[in-house]
Specification:
- The chain is α/β, with parallel strands linked by helices.
- It has two domains: about 180 residues, Quinone Oxidoreductase, Chain A, domain 1, CATH 3.90.180.10; about 130 residues, Rossmann fold (3-Layer(aba) Sandwich).
- The protein is globular and about 60 Å long.
């Protein structure tokens, strides 16, 4: 089968790989319908990388597909069922899992990062990570379930209350999903900070009350948020300093973006003086069912997020579009 394989040092190659098959009793073989390219995939491909991955691994972890075969112990899904997958299978045995914190599982081997993912025709996933999804959901929206599940976990950690103000820094896929979920929860105003005009327009179309450049936000902050924001999201992974500055007294900051190379300066005394809560969050935490319900119900306007749907043969072009800021989300159809 054709697959997009990471070879280290920023190199992604399209090549032929053997088709995977059932090896373990809980294996589920899935034919890929669509797979999104994630911001963390771009970080894997940066030089130096902003996110680790195993060379030789097929990338891709935001996907929807159809079950082709199942292991002998699988009873939770059936051949032919349309499914989405949590690409971060939890062990349910480590200290974090047994304490009810599966997002902190110590034994995750993520699909598309440390073992083969879904930028290919077929992928193997453990049955416990597989969730059914309606046939009525478009492939583009189904491919957004995984990042949406991660964002729902982040919004849960923020404990947003109706009427609270929100600043989201960055209007990539994650920033736009945060804006949509916060808006649906009754928060407002929801302000997205984004220097790229194309992505700012997507944020407005999805949910944002304001989508401003950093310069525009600085000029209008006293008018729009004289007391600061109740909730601030760093959806970039390198803007904790500005997030602290934008937060109100007693505010909560969700640090979500992933960039292992970032070392942002921060004015630490503001954390103390303002009594801020800084919360790290980046994967799902019992939130796949909620994300699936949100997508199936159509209650969020997520369609503007998907900029392009491309065949696997054009995956490198999709990566280039995302890096240039021309696209917000690119979905690949193997």
């Amino acid at each position: 089968m054709r697959a997009a394989v990471f070879h280290g040092n920023g190199e992604l190659r399209l090549e032929d790989r053997p088709e995977p098959g059932i090896e373990h009793a809980d294996d589920v073989l899935i034919a890929i319908e669509a797979c999104g390219i994630c911001g963390s995939d771009l970080q894997v491909l940066n030089v130096p990388p902003g996110h680790p991955a195993t060379p030789g691994t097929i990338l891709g972890h935001e996907f929807v597909g159809r079950v082709q075969a199942i292991g002998e112990a699988v009873t939770s899904t059936r051949v032919g069922e349309r499914v989405v997958v949590d690409p971060d299978p939890k062990c349910n045995a480590c200290t974090s899992c047994r304490a009810g914190r599966p997002a902190n599982c110590e034994n995750i081997r993520a699909l598309g990062v440390y073992r083969d993912g879904a930028l290919a025709e077929l992928v193997i996933a453990p049955a416990a990570a597989v969730y059914p999804i309606s046939e009525d959901v478009s492939l583009e929206m189904a491919a957004l379930v995984e990042p949406l599940a991660c964002v729902v976990n982040g919004t849960n950690r923020a404990a947003a209350r109706p009427g609270e103000s929100v600043v989201v820094m960055g209007a990539g896929t994650i920033g736009c999903l945060f804006a949509a979920v916060f808006k649906a929860s009754g928060a407002g105003p929801v302000i997205v900070i984004e220097p790229n005009a194309v992505r700012a327009a997507v944020a407005r179309a999805v949910a944002a009350d304001f989508a401003l450049t950093p310069e525009e936000f600085a000029a209008r902050r006293a008018e729009i948020l004289p007391k600061g924001a109740d909730i601030v999201v760093d959806a970039v992974g390198s803007v904790l300093g500005p997030a602290i500055e934008a937060a109100a007294m007693g505010g909560r900051i969700i640090v979500f973006g992933m960039n292992g190379a970032a070392r942002p300066p921060i004015h630490q005394i503001e954390i103390t003086e303002k009594g801020l809560s800084i919360l790290g969050s980046y994967i799902s935490n019992f939130t796949f069912p909620a994300a699936i319900r949100l997508v199936e119900s159509g209650s969020l306007n997520l369609a503007p997020i998907v900029s392009a749907v491309l065949p696997l043969s054009e995956v490198l072009d999709g990566v280039a579009r995302l890096r240039s800021g021309e696209a917000t989300k690119v979905v690949i159809t193997p």
